[in-house]
C-alpha cells in the first residue's frame, strides 16, 4: 500500500525537488497533491485526505502554523512534517505543539528526510499475519539496521559483503533489496552519507580538512577533496567559507 503525500510550499523549485525526492528516492510513497499556500491547501486536503502532509512554515496568506492547527483538529491521524528555514526555530517548536510530527531545517538533509519517510511508511504499514507482509516488515527492519550501522562506521571501511554477513543475507540479494527499499545503490548511499557528514563537520567544527577526511572514512585527504568536489561542486574549503543561502533563484533545496 502506497503512503499518500501532499506538499505545501510557495517556491516551485523547492516543491518540485521535494516531490521528486519523495517519489524517486524512497519506495512506497506517492504525491497526490500540491499547493503553494495554506488557504489552497486547506481546500485540497479536505478532498485528498493524504497520509502525510509536508509543509513550509512561512508562506503568503495562511501560513503553515495556521494550516497545521486546522488540519490536526480535523485529521488527527494525518502525519505532518514541517520544513523550516534556519532562522525559524521558534516557529518549528510551535508547530510541534500544534500537532506536527517532526521538522527539518532548510536546506533539507537527504538522510534525515529518508529516515522520517521510512518511519511514516513503517507506521502506516497494515498489520497482517500473512507471510508476505511479515517478510516485508522484516526486510524493512534489516534496511533500517544497515543504515544505523553505516552511520556508526563512516570513519572506516564499509563493504556490502561484510554487512550482508552480519545480517545473514546473500550480498547479491541484499544489494537488490537495498536499492528497492531506498532507491539508491548501497555504494552510492555510503558515499552520500560520507558527504553529509563531511558537510556537517565543515560547517560546525574547526577541524582541519585532513581530520574531516579521516572521520569520514578517507585515508587520503587529497582523494577526499576530489570526491567532495565531484559530489558537491566545490572544494571543502570553499564549502566551509560559503555563506548559507536562505532563498533565491540558486537556492539548493537539499544538502
TrEMBL record:
Residues 144-242 form the HTH araC/xylS-type domain. The keyword Cytoplasm applies. One of its GO terms (biological process) is phosphorelay signal transduction system. Keywords: Cytoplasm, DNA-binding, Phosphoprotein, Transcription, Transcription regulation, Two-component regulatory system. Residues 4-121 form the Response regulatory domain. GO terms for molecular function: DNA-binding transcription factor activity; sequence-specific DNA binding. Its main location: cytoplasm. The modification 4-aspartylphosphate is found at residue 56. Pfam families: HTH_18 (PF12833), Response_reg (PF00072). SMART domains: HTH_ARAC, REC. PROSITE patterns: HTH_ARAC_FAMILY_2, RESPONSE_REGULATORY. It is found in: Cytoplasm. GO terms for cellular component: cytoplasm. The keyword Transmembrane does not apply. This is DNA-binding response regulator. It comes from Paenibacillus agaridevorans. The lineage of its organism: Bacteria, Bacillati, Bacillota, Bacilli, Bacillales.
Amino acid at each position: 500500500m502506497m503512503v499518500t503525500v501532499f506538499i505545501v510550499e510557495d517556491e516551485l523549485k523547492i516543491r518540485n525537488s521535494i516531490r521528486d525526492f519523495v517519489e524517486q528516492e524512497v519506495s512506497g510513497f506517492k504525491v497526490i497533491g500540491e499547493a503553494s499556500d495554506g488557504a489552497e491547501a486547506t481546500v485540497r486536503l479536505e478532498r485528498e485526505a493524504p497520509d502525510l502532509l509536508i509543509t513550509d512554515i512561512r508562506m503568503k496568506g495562511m501560513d503553515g502554523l495556521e494550516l497545521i492547527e486546522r488540519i490536526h483538529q480535523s485529521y488527527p491521524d494525518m502525519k505532518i512534517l514541517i520544513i523550516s528555514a534556519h532562522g525559524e526555530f521558534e516557529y518549528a517548536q510551535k508547530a510541534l505543539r500544534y500537532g506536527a510530527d517532526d521538522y527539518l531545517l532548510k536546506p533539507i538533509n537527504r538522510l534525515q528526510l529518508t529516515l522520517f519517510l521510512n518511519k511514516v511508511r513503517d507506521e502506516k504499514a497494515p498489520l497482517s499475519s500473512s507471510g508476505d507482509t511479515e517478510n516485508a516488515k522484516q526486510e524493512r527492519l534489516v534496511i533500517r539496521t544497515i543504515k544505523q550501522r553505516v552511520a556508526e562506521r563512516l570513519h572506516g571501511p564499509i563493504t556490502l559483503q561484510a554487512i550482508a554477513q552480519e545480517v545473514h543475507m546473500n550480498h547479491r540479494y541484499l544489494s537488490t533489496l537495498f536499492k528497492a527499499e531506498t532507491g539508491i545503490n548501497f555504494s552510492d548511499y555510503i558515499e552520500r552519507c560520507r558527504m553529509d557528514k563531511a558537510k556537517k563537520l565543515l560547517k560546525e567544527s574547526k577541524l582541519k580538512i585532513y581530520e574531516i577526511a579521516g572521520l569520514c572514512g578517507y585515508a587520503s585527504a587529497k582523494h577526499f577533496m576530489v570526491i567532495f568536489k565531484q559530489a558537491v561542486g566545490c572544494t571543502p574549503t570553499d564549502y566551509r567559507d560559503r555563506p548559507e543561502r536562505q532563498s533565491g533563484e540558486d537556492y539548493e533545496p537539499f544538502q
